[in-house]
Design a protein that fits this description.
Elements lengths: L3 E2 L3 E4 L1 E2 L11 E4 L6 E2 L5 E14 L6 E16 L2 E12 L6 E4 H6 L3 E5 L2 E5 L1
Parallel strand pairs: 4-9, 5-8
Antiparallel strand pairs: 1-8, 2-11, 3-4, 6-7, 7-8, 10-11
């Protein structure tokens, strides 16, 4: 079961975590993927490698990517000077991705409210 823990925050559609060791890997809210996908292994607090590699296919460019494990990730965000710890369970580890993707529909299913306004997504947990 996936979850997102934290408190209400205004979070941009794209942001970098405070302690992301790979600042070139952006964090994106996504509406078209099938799961939470994370390329940054340093965000995983726990993960299990799959016995057999899984593959996915990107919609836009029809590129195949590997999914090699699943686990829990944790990262810190800062909005208006306030730091918040975010936890997402059952994220897929996809080391070939150029972005970490958080699936909007999975957040919504868990009762997280997401309101889009201007260039931001307001996320209330």
């Amino acid at each position: 079961m996936e979850s997102l823990k934290g408190t209400s925050a205004e979070t941009p559609l794209m942001f970098h975590t405070d302690f992301n060791n790979k600042p070139d890997i952006p964090m994106l809210l996504d509406s078209s993927t099938s799961d939470h996908y994370f390329a940054d292994l340093s965000l995983f607090t726990f993960y299990t490698l799959f016995n057999q590699l899984l593959s996915g296919l990107t919609i836009e460019k029809r590129l195949i990517f590997n999914i090699i494990g699943r686990g829990n990730i944790e990262f810190q965000t800062k909005t208006n000077g306030v730091k918040r710890m975010i936890t997402i369970n059952n994220a897929l580890y996809t080391p070939g991705f150029r972005s970490n993707l958080i699936l909007i529909s999975k957040l919504s299913i868990k009762g997280v409210e997401i309101i889009f306004k201007d260039d931001k997504a307001v996320i209330r947990m």
